[in-house]
Amino acid sequence: MLDILMSVLVAGLTTGALYALATVGLSLVWGSMGMLNMAHAAMLTLGGYAAFTATTTLGLPAFAGFAAAILFGAMAGGLLYVLIVRNLLKNDKATFESNVMIATVGIGIALENTILLTYGGQPLKQPLSVDGVLKLGPLNLPYQNIVIILVVVVMMAVIALLLGKTRMGRAIRATAQNRDAAQLMGVPVNRVYFQVLVLSGAVAGICGVMVSSMTQLSPPLGNDPMLKAFIMCVVAGLGNLPGAVAAAFGLALLEAFIQYAAGARWGFPSLLFVVIAVLIWRPSGLFGRTQIHRM
Amino acid sequence: MNTHSFPKGKASAKGLASLNKLDIAITLLLIAAAIALPFFVDSRYVLGQIVLALFYATIASQWNLLFGFAGVFSLAQMAIFAFGGYATAMICFYFGWNVWGALVPAALGSVAFSLIVGLACLRLTGVYVALLTLAIAQTMYLLIVTDTECFVMVGSTCRQFTGGAVGFARFGDFGTRALFKAQWLVGNYAIVAALFAITMAFTYAIVKSPMGLAFRALKDNPGYAVARGVNRFQAQLLVFGISAFFTSLAGGVYAAHFQAIGPGILSMSQLMFIIAITVVGGVGTFWGPLVGTIVLVAADEVMREAGEFRTLGLGIIIAVSIVLMPKGLVGRLGDLAGWLRRRHAAPVGGKLAESPAPAGE
User: Fold this and answer.
1) Residue B15 in domain
2) What is this model's ipTM?
3) Once rounded to an integer, what is the mean pLDDT over residues A186-197?
4) Which of A56, A100, A186, B203 has the most CB atoms in a 10 Å sphere around its CB?
């Protein structure tokens, strides 16, 4: 009994780590730009496939695969800013929120389909994964899960340092708090937007590698983590990074236990009920800033 | 309801006087075209595609009513459409009803479902609504696809309550096959065209009603509108229910027309097609969804040649058109008309430039 409980716990923590990484990318963009990036799933997938190409087709070492995932994710984020977001920001501010959502939906489909046309629909094995199990008494810890949790913890630390200690991070936080005030203080807001999208693209790339190492590479790879990340963002309150991470781990553990207790198909629906319950109780999320101008 | 505190008579009279001429002309033209169409189209394939396009136009017009006019960014549109289709199929399948009898009860059931969804979602705004409705639609899809428990035995095969990954088939039809024999498709075309016409008429009435004005007020200046007693939540919930009625009615007719319904219509690409239609045609314009349907279904037929690049093309069309023309083709036409009018009006004075926007805006 105890070992089943422990393996459910390990599974929950691992998926929690993955969701946390996906959530951070989304939440960062929403918090600083008020933009919901529906193409995030496709960026995750892009990262996974970039790592696959670099290590399998080109035969490069594992760290180059990681670098490729980061690079392609960051490039996708940068291009998204240059081609879409920059142009939409020129229009009326009131319509930006919904327009950018529709536009990124389109980009997401196009990107996912490009990957499908390039690599084909059959699932591929992610070469950047480690086999083997660490035996600790009654506990079986697959190395893959340990790697994922470690990578995610390191990424969290890097992002926290980037946001907390660097000049760029200060600019991002200032823009998130108040765009107009930041601009008046001389923060180049458009450059901040560009940086945020590049950063979230890079995070998405790594997240894609991690997700595909747990399952397999397939074009709709990113959709499931993204949908769950959306839910976690909503529960935590969009734009709140520490809250999003907490919600990701909490909900992933809940999901793992429900899937164990009631069967896999009830995992997602029960998450949804939790979200709806939370939102009825607190309309802007558990840790969200209460919007005074809500109407 | 609070929204009725608007000066109803005056506003609608003014609306009638200024907007109707062009809209009436377009309507008459469309009705004539719809009646003439079966006489000119021989190909069963083309007529079938036109019927499908009418379904798209109906769903898109209701999504446009929700998003373009009421400002509810709901991604559960196909879920509600599917609910109507499934409810119709299930009533016929389990109780042996005639399709005609099942349509309205199924649509009413769907309204109840949408009101529950609305109660959960519409206290929120903007992206929260989008995310929650997307999650609800996805949950519905997952629950249907993963349904494996036997509910009834049909012959020697097991049938799930929701039809599982296969869905329902052969639960009845409109009776047009028995009535018109080889020309049954024309009969179905007439039914779907009538559905579209009724939906558009109701949509027009809603857009021009005090509620439509309330939404315009909420969009122009939310603070002032709320202070004047416009209740956003109530008004949005009402529109959510109304649009769910027509959407799910279309879903029921869709199920009866194809004599089949499956979880495939809940897929993301179907939803994207509806969004693309609305965006290309013009969000928040009355004729936008129809224009978008014509353009996109035609583009889709052309891209059918390109086969696998179809979805890619669709995604790019969505992204490019929202960047280049945020108000869609109808909005661009409106800009053009406004520009021409200003040019003509310039010598006379600025009076005409202030005249109301073109149809449906």
Assistant:
1) no
2) 0.81
3) 91
4) A100
